[in-house]
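Just scan this pair:

***
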Amino acid sequence: MRAAGHLRGQALGVAISEFSPAFVQAYNTGAALFQAGRFDEAATVYRRLIDESPEIATPHAATLHGALGLCLRAAGRPDEALEPLRQALRLKPDHLDALNALGGILLDRRHLEHALIAFRELVRLKPGYPGALLTLGNLFMFTGDGGRASAVYRLALVVEPDMAVNYNNLGAVSLSLGRLAEAALNYRRALAIDVGKPEYRKNLGTCLLMAGDYADGTVAYEGRLEQGVWRKRNMPGVLWQGQPLAGKTLLVHFEQGLGDSFQYIRYAGVLKRMGARVLYECQPALKRVLSAAPDLDGLFAFGEPLPAYDYHISLMSLMHRLGTTPDSVPGGVPYLRAEPQLEAGWAERLDRLEGGKRPSLRIGINWHGNETGKSIPLECFEAMGKLPGVRLYSLQKVSGLDHLERLRDRVAVTELGADFDAGPDAFLDTAAVMANMDLIVTCDTSVCHLAGAMGRPTWVVLKWFADWRWMRDRLDSPWYPTMRLFRQASPNDWAEVMARVTAEVAAETGTRHGALAGEAGR
């Protein structure tokens, strides 16, 4: 920890002779304990010095309180650290280490606005304080101020021009602002300094994929597999790197989210045509819904015994190994289907809910996702639910259901009951209900990937800075031919994009109503 270097007798800012030998010895003992990682013991020393020195001069008291706060934070006791750090700043407002530590605690607690105040002051006092500019830039990113984040990261490069992380972060903010070429350049600069770092390679990959450059992007994206934070599988056997597959058994294993299994399971057909016997190891909750996927010779849930295989590969590495581009995405949609019995059962159940009077447009909606910024406020569906001939059905599970409770009187959404997808197998009812819908309107979650894989008419409403797989400006997806993309025109403006979606729904309803009227007149 950087602050350790400041816990020395000289940090009192005065000649040591002004203090008793016992005081100096105790202070230096605390500093030695801190540097040895014995933070709790160091805190005990500094707390005793504070208690025994009530008349100590203000600047020296600030040093003691600051030292205590730094020790408590390092000991994992941030609640106790807050007061001594604040006391140090009351006594000495330009106590840099205390300001940094206090800002760090506020940041850890996601009190972003208060952390922003602390780090702006720290940068004002000393722009070169190690890590201060980087943290301030990150805070501007977290609070959605990409312009200021970019300016701060550029200043960080002036102060520390050879720090790869500064280029990496500048790449991230450039990407968030839609400046893809600039982002790629900065990621490459980061890689020139910290050659081959997996995180930077992966970031470059997502940037290139977003730009539609799959040839280079899929190669760089492989860096994710070497990141320390990645959930490595360490599969036994030989990694498939393009070896001939004729007569060979290839095990493909899941890697990331549920939606990724829906999106990439299509590659089984490509591998099958290359002569492989294809096995897929999936997330346990998806085994049943994926059981209808074509071209699989074996489907296994994670944790189940696996048969012998010749090669293995991570699911999302197939883009790279098979040379996928936006123009060569494997087709075959629909390749996932609802179970016929469940589909028929939900057809009858929906008919009962509607009293035998089918609306012009049944719309299944999914508004809430687990990732930051992807969720559509449920109130944005209010106008859509009031359109003549439209009936909304909730496809939401687990998260986001509290929004229904809060807005039940405002937003007309039909709920499908407590038994909807209530079993251990996920998405079975969701698939069956979607098969009976005329349209799916959803945020970017696994629901949209299942709907797309089923070939259902699907409208995905995306945040302004969307996931790389939707690329940057396209209003369609090469992965799903029945899908339309609706993008925010500006960050966090769900009202505007949902107004466009609602207008399109109204037009669709009018078209259907006119078609039905024409048929009735014949």
About this structure: Residues 42 and 438 are 67 Å apart (CA to CA).
